Each structure stands twice: as structure tokens, then as C-alpha cells.
Protein: D-methionine transport system permease protein MetI
Amino acid sequence: MHDLISWVSQNSDLILTATWETIYMVLASGIIGFAVGIPLGVVLHTTKKGGLLENNQVNLALGAIVNIGRSVPFLVLMVAIIPVTKLLVGTFIGTTATIVPLTIGAIPFVARLIEGALMEVPSGLIEAAQSMGASQLQIIYKVLLPEAMPSIVNTITVTLVTLVSYSAMAGTVGGGGLGDVAIRYGYYRYDIVIMAVTVIMLIVLVQVIQSLGDAIVRRVDHR
Structure:
């Protein structure tokens, strides 16, 4: 018991700080990623063949960019955009620097999931709105997005969970957060307890995010 109390007193600040760093990275990159990825997903959906704003050239170009973004493994992406990260935040190491690759990795991921969510909206609802004289923007904001809201919330939940795992991977290259603690204090020092605690904290974060997401879906799903 004394050993446990001693361990907690020595490492609690380290774990709590790393947890807040992980939350900071995930929320910051998630907010920016959603701000860009959701509109991009809407554009991908509406510019496809038969869409509200059908434009094959725009759809192909954006689709290619999104596919390229999704095909690059996160650790490779982190290294590949080091110059961009340094340009934006002045360094490529630390929690704030990690937000840049996390955001760039999240945007194409969100865009494709949003595109898929909008495809679930019945075409009859769109046709009904068109027959009543609704404009294209009105259909997007008053039909497509509200009807797809449960799926959009699921997209946000899945993305945040994915960002938690990405942030942990970032710890292997000095990204900060729980992944960094697991590598530096757990793996390199052969401290199994710290490794176990960081894994447990990551599991708790994922469970909290998933539970909140599921609760919100139940509130917005009126089907």
C-alpha cells in the first residue's frame, strides 16, 4: 500500500499533465478539422453526379486530394510536413506542433465520413424541398444537414476517437501527451506500471468520448 501511495505521489502530476495535453491536442485539431472537413464533405456530396451542385471537375479534384490525404500513414504525414509545422508554430516538437499534422490528418477523414453521412438522406426529401421552391443552400442547411445529424455526430465521435490514437502515436516522435509518457517513462525505462496507467487513461478518454457521442446521437435522432 505504501509503495502504491509513493508511486501515485511521484507520478500523478506527470500523468495528469499528459492527459490534459492529449485532450488539448485532440480538441484543438478536432475543432479545426471539423470546421474544414464538414464543408468539404458537403461539397464532395453536392458536386457528385446527380448532386445539387453537380460539377464533375470539382468533385474529381477534391476527391483526389482527399484520397491522397487519407492514404498517407499518420507518422509519415508528421515527418513529411515538418517544414509546414515549423512555419506555422515555430517548432515541430510538442503538443501545439502536433496539432498541425493531427488537423491535416483529420480533414480528409472527416470529409469522406460526412459525404457518406449525407448519402443516407433519402432523395425523396430533397425532391420534396425542390418542388416547394427551396434554394440549393436552403436544401443543404435545412434538409441535408439536419436529416444527417445523427450520422454527423457519429462522424465527430469516430474522428475524436481516431485522433486520440493518432495523438498517442505522435508521442513516439516527441509529440507530447500520454503517448510521449508511455514511450519516455514507460518503454525506455521499462516501467510497466506507467505503461499500464497510460493505456488505461487512453481507454478512459475513448470511453468518455464514445459515451458522450452516443448520448448526443440519441437526442438528435428523431427517426
